[in-house]
Amino acid sequence: MEIVDSVVKFKLIALFILLFSPLLLVAQGVSLFIQEGTASYYAPKFQGRRTASGEVFHLDSLTAAHKLLPFGTLLRVTNQKNGKEVLVRVNDRLPASSKRVIDLSYLAAKEVDMIREGLIRVKIEATTVAQMNELVDYFEGKPHPGLRLRRYFPIITVPIIFFDK
Question: What are the Cα distances from residue 90, in Å, to 41, 50, 76, 152, 158?
Fold first, then answer.
């Protein structure tokens, strides 16, 4: 009788993990917040100029400048006023003295509907848990003022094994 009870308990625990681990992953995925603040966008005069990464800037690219984040970092930038978001790749640097947190390309600015305002409040997020962990590793031992970085640990799911008598 006790063996049956332990098998039933195991099945219930496994079912609970299977049903609720996706919710935990979603909870982690929606909390990949890195920073918030003011965003601006590049003036047309920068078209064709070299960025800090060495790439040529194009108004019609989905790129951005950031003070600290490594080149190549993909970011989700959300306009806090209207909820519109865009994915951009960091390929340039903002001056250390800038009061802005990010500078978007013209196309990215258009995607979040900020052309008329020029400056908007934004939320910046990592795109995946793995990317957040890479950023934590990158900044380990380095100053990163204004950035909220924290490590996420993978959630282990256990497959459900049904036993027959």
Answer: 13, 14, 11, 22, 37
